[in-house]
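I had to read the description of the data format several times before I understood it. The format is easy to grasp once an entry is in front of the reader. For illustration, here is how one protein appears when written out as sequence plus structure tokens:
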Amino acid sequence: VAAAHDGRWFIAILVLLAPLALATALAAVWPGILARRMSVSATTSRAGRHGTIQRLLPATPVGAVAAKEVRLWLRDPIRVTCLLIAVIVGVGTGLIPRLVSGTSELLPFSGPLTVIIAGACATNLYGGDGTSLWLTVMTPHAATADVRGRQLGWLVLVAPFTIVETVILTLWSGQHALWPWALGLLLALIGGSAGLLPLASLVSVQPFDDGGNPTPAWSLKVHIALVVVSLTAAPAAVLLFFGTLGGHATVSWLGVAVGILTAVAFTAVGSAAAARRLGARQTEVLRSLVP
């Protein structure tokens, strides 16, 4: 639009033709790539990736569940879409104002926003299990390992990325006064999400429809979870607010410490509550998943 307004017609036409050329090239290349992908058997590199995941996780029932969860997050189209939305919205919210108007204030909050969306989308993990939950039901004393493994699997994927994201974008923003906000909110939300996701998944189990797609109830649950996940950072946010308002850096950094404490507390309490609920109601949950 700017090029056309300035009369630079070559640039304007090029901007329109470039995506068309790219789409044409992708349409020509993708069928061959997909055909090879669907027809080839498991490769050594794929087995190597799986082995790497297993080596990084503990050789325990919790580690086994976590490895399964990591693979599900990377293979399930619905879960992958949720993670992509979290990354795109989180990074884009801070990056677009920077690129368009040079505003850097939102960059430190990209990581916390990514966690909020990724955590909310993970509050219906058991809803997608279907009859596979039968394995957990038939294994004695498996509830605790199942819950903690699901927490660990989510943490393995989300926590490292969002921490790196927050550090890089905060450094780039130059908003050094916002370091306590970025770290305090991020850590509090990571722990809050990890504690909420197994419990919320069991409080209201929303199975997919006959076509394997999310239902309106699932969408409503995710939108409610966006608010609930955000509230887990409230204790840290209060201290950060008063520290910034009064110009007391010590109080602001105390908010980071409170964020760490609430993260640990939410993770532990949510894990214990979800394990008790799963142990007491696992057959009821299974019945809700089987048509």
About this structure: The longest helix spans residues 249-289. The mean pLDDT is 87.
